[in-house]
Amino acid sequence: MSDFEAVVAALSTATSEHPAPAPTWGEIAVLGSGAQAWAYAAGFHAGGARVRWWVSRGEEAARIGASGISVRGGGPVGNYRVDPEADHAIRPIPWIDQAVAGADLVVVVGSLTHQRAVGMRLAGLLSEGQTVAISPGRTFGALEMAWWLRTGGSHQGVTLIELQSCPFSVSAVGTGQLRWSESAPAAALAAYPADRGEPARQSLAAFFPPMDLLPTVLHTSLTESSWSVVPAGILDGPMTRETPEELLPGAAPLPRPAVPSPEMESLLEALREERAAVAARWGVRAPQVPIGTPASGSEGEVLRGAVLDGTAGSLVALCSAAALAAVPVPVTGSVVTLVSAMCGRDLRSEGRRLESLGWADADVDAVRRAVGRAGG
Hints:
By secondary structure, the protein is an alpha/beta fold. The protein has two domains: 3-222, NAD(P)-binding Rossmann-like Domain (Rossmann fold, 3-Layer(aba) Sandwich), CATH 3.40.50.720; 226-243 and 257-345. It contains 14 helices and twelve strands. It has helices at residues 3-11, 34-46, 58-67, 96-100, 112-122, 141-151, 197-204, 217-222, 230-236, 262-281, 300-325, 330-343, 347-350, 364-373; strands at 27-31, 50-54, 69-73, 78-80, 91-92, 105-109, 131-135, 159-163, 170-174, 177-180, 188-192, 212-213. The strands form two sheets. Strands 5-2-1-6-7-8-11-12 form an eight-stranded mixed sheet, with helices on both faces. Strands 4-3-10-9 form a four-stranded mixed sheet.
């Protein structure tokens, strides 16, 4: 058995002749920090679930504990208590093993680095019947998580859910304070094993706007758009200029363009075309994606993180999939090299690569069949 077949087998279970019912998610663990983690915690709590919140930086939970999580604008508007002792509150848990023990759903939310660190720690902590959602999954997020769980000896029967993006759009306006947008871009998910997707979609819809279901995690990975913020970042964003700490009297920061420049459009189109070619070889039709423009009011470090994650977690992963399928992607590779040089890091080595997940010698068609039938 090859390495990639072992990864698939580690999470596969026998498929029932009858569709599985939507699972009841009464105990939910949110693993992450920042606005997206706060939003997940508030949304699940508002929907009636008991929420445990684990964050590696304990001071964040301590700061928020004094005032709780506040949601304004849209979504589950209200104030949500954060208290480790209260029954009817979001409970911050200092230890990850205690946070995930017995949880029906474990949501891993945050940067690529955070998702990897959590994946390593989750290995060995999960048991059969639990579900792990990766948000945002970027490219091959579920496959990387499957690798960590398999190498750590987790039991069979764990369901992985890869979310292309969060099922909401929020921004932080203060510590624990969220501005929730009434309109959020369409989001999609897929499951691994694949036959768990529809039950998971139904369960998630009890808390957030319904998401689209895609056939497999190859589809969510190869049609996601986290990479699309990279051109904006390198041509007119946090990778190219810093706002001075102090401006001259009467001066104002240069505004960000409201529409993309022709140069940005050209680069986006080239990246789109290469991604579509790779996706086609993997049996996936890649749709047109919206241009990734940074959210209004986002801080420079947040935008820089999005560019780095879009490169390491999406563009590098695509280069890896392209190499396995023998599809040339010169523009994508050049952007990875450029961003690596701009930030002084080797993102090609740091990024998600199928060859580092035991898939180096895998046949593309065999991978497609294996991932598609995972679950039966």
